[in-house]
C-alpha cells in the first residue's frame, strides 16, 4: 500500500499525503470489483486523490493486458 498525492491548488506542486491522512481501511485493502460495495468516504477520497506517490505495479508482476496487433 502506498501514499496518495494531493495538490492544494492548481498552482501548487503535487505532494504525498501523510499516511495518517489516508482513509481507514486503506483503499488498497478494500479493493473490490464493484464500486457500489465501497463506502462513500472511500469513493470520495479516491475521486479527490487520483495520483499515487509511487508507481503501481500489476498483480503478479506482469502486465494483465497485452495488445499484439495495431488498432
UniProtKB/TrEMBL annotation:
Q: Which InterPro entries match?
A: Semap_dom, Semap_dom_sf, Semaphorin, WD40/YVTN_repeat-like_dom_sf
Biological process per Gene Ontology, one example term? positive regulation of cell migration
- Region Disordered: what ranges? 1-20, 52-71
- Bias (Polar residues): 1-12
GO MF terms held by the record: chemorepellent activity; semaphorin receptor binding
Tell me the ranges covered by the Sema domain, including all copies: 1-71
Which ranges of the sequence are coiled-coil? none
- Cellular component, GO annotation: plasma membrane
Recorded superkingdom: Eukaryota
Please report the name of this protein according to its UniProt entry. Answer: Sema domain-containing protein
- What is the source species? Dreissena polymorpha (Zebra mussel)
Amino acid at each position: 500500500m502506498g501514499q496518495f498525492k494531493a495538490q492544494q491548488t492548481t498552482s501548487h506542486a503535487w505532494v504525498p499525503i501523510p499516511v495518517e491522512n489516508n482513509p481507514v481501511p486503506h483503499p488498497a485493502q478494500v479493493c473490490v470489483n464493484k464500486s457500489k460495495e465501497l463506502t462513500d468516504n472511500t469513493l470520495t477520497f479516491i475521486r479527490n486523490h487520483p495520483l499515487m506517490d509511487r508507481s503501481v505495479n500489476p498483480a503478479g508482476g506482469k502486465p494483465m493486458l497485452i495488445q499484439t496487433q495495431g488498432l
